[in-house]
Design goal:
The protein is of the alpha/beta class. It contains 15 helices and 18 strands. The chain binds one RNA strand through helix 5, strand 16, helix 11 and helix 14.
Length: about 400
RNA sequence: GCGUCGGUGGUAGAGUGGUCAAUUACAACAGACUGUAAAUCUGUCGCCUUCGGGCUACGAAGGUUCAAAUCCUUCCCGGCGCA
């Protein structure tokens, strides 16, 4: 496609990492880059101006949620997502594949994007006990997925073609093939079955997309799955990167999906990126803690999206600092008149104290969520932007070691 | 002044002889969160403890009873009504 381009500026020696630029119809993204998540056509609590000011280059919205509410056709009629939400920079939409997981097997079980097996509160589901008493909102068939709306219980059927059609109506610059995100607790046999399904859905997504005029202005990324299994991950990377339409058209880039064990995350990314063609961009879906960003960048990831910075900020007052995360609701901050971080350049740190933010959270004032989100997004955006600079300077490994030594102490 | 209803843990408010250290909510304190079922969820929440239990508590002081937040007496305080 014409308007979508990726170029590499510089690589990290002896690793897969690189700094580059993705060009889209709504402007360039300097990579590596962090993508704030605006699920329902809004990064919660933030205006476009705030996002721009804190350094966001691009946002990601969610196909499934917008399909349910307000409806993708309404957004099409509004002139597309860019016009609807007044964000005129690059934009991505998710495919709905993650909701196959979060509203399906993971529903009601406390399982999320990254499992911490040491945590006894996490219930590991057994594949065999499909009937575990917890109702699911998504059930998977080979042709597509049945969803029951979490809003009103209505039934919906989403196929790969339907996902792409919705994403065409939404009109993001970069869209994803419909996939099945599996739990790392699934056995090998199921992972294999699910992977075949994801590949079949990828082919259908690709064929459908490339047959439509929207493929001239929207780039489609194929999603790699395969769980924690090296063989399946590599198979998936090979299959998706070699996939073609009957006319010989291919994916414009790649997404790396899956729910992970913390320790599997980094190796999975490396296995996949060793195989994916270097000249196309890669997006690691749903990952964004600082230590994971370093590993991802070093292993050749160009884009990351993650709800963690905004959700952590908004729902629990957990703020990123160079010394690790702090919770503004801790009693010690009630009368602490220092900024969150003295050397932070964000709007919160330049203008307000810890005591003020603590007050906003304790009194449940909505500005608290907004200010905390500004800080966390700034922190993460700035972190990844700094990684980019260090790649260009040739000092990424030193920066990584120095940052993590302090952050994780 | 008379009558009447009430005074319970940080707050509101259940409980009306033993199963009550006392339902519940809020607040407080700690924790979780990785393509957002998420401005959500979890745990703790009188004091001490060798985790068996011990101690102090339901306005105050007395009393009845094997046993009182719960019954009686007096006092203090508050709401309402009548003077």
């Amino acid at each position: 496609m014409k308007e979508f381009r990726f170029s590499i500026e510089k690589k990290i020696p002896n690793s897969l990492g690189r700094a580059g630029v993705i060009s889209t119809p709504h402007g360039d993204i300097k990579t590596p880059a962090f993508v704030p998540v605006g699920t329902k056509a809004t990064v919660k609590g933030m205006t476009s101006e705030m996002l721009t000011d804190l350094g966001a280059q691009v946002v990601l919205a969610n196909t499934y949620h917008l399909y349910l509410q307000p409806g993708d056709e309404l957004i099409r009629d509004a002139g597309g997502l860019h016009a609807f939400m007044n964000w005129h920079k690059p934009m991505l939409t998710d495919s709905g594949g993650f909701q196959v997981f979060s509203l399906g097997v993971a529903y009601g079980k406390g399982i999320s994007k990254v499992l911490h097996p040491a945590d006894p509160s996490v219930q590991i589901p057994e594949r065999s006990s499909a009937d575990d008493g917890v109702p699911r909102l998504a059930t998977i068939g080979n042709d597509g997925v049945s969803f029951r709306s979490h809003i009103n219980g209505s039934l919906h059927y989403i196929t790969p073609e339907k996902s792409i059609e919705i994403q065409h109506n939404l009109g993001a610059d970069i869209i994803f093939a419909f996939d099945e995100c599996t739990s790392p607790t699934e056995d090998r046999r199921y992972q294999e079955e699910a992977l075949h399904r994801t590949h079949s859905w990828a082919q259908r997504s690709l064929n459908y997309h490339k047959s439509k005029p929207n493929s001239q202005k929207q780039a489609l990324l194929g999603v790699i799955q395969g769980g924690r299994d090296e063989e399946l991950r590599k198979l998936s990377a090979k299959t998706i990167s070699e996939m073609r339409t009957p006319d010989g058209e291919e994916f414009d880039g790649f997404g790396i999906g899956g729910s992970f064990d913390k320790e599997d995350l980094h190796s999975s990314v490396r296995w996949v990126n060793e195989i994916l063609p270097e000249e196309k961009p890669r997006h690691l879906l749903g990952i964004g803690e600082p230590e994971d960003l370093f590993e991802g960048v070093e292993n050749g990831v160009d884009l990351f999206d993650c709800v963690a910075p905004t959700r952590n900020a908004r729902t629990t007052g957990s703020l990123y600092t160079k010394d690790g995360r702090m919770n503004i609701l801790n009693a010690q901050y009630r009368s602490d008149f220092n900024p969150i971080e003295p050397d932070c350049g964000c709007y919160l740190c330049k203008n307000f104290t810890r005591a003020y933010l603590a007050h906003l959270f304790r009194s449940k004032e909505m500005l608290g969520s907004t200010l905390a989100s500004i800080h966390n997004l700034y922190f993460i955006a700035n972190l990844v932007a700094t990684m980019r600079e260090k790649i260009l300077e040739g000092t990424f490994p030193e920066y990584k070691a120095q940052f993590l030594a302090r952050y994780q102490k």
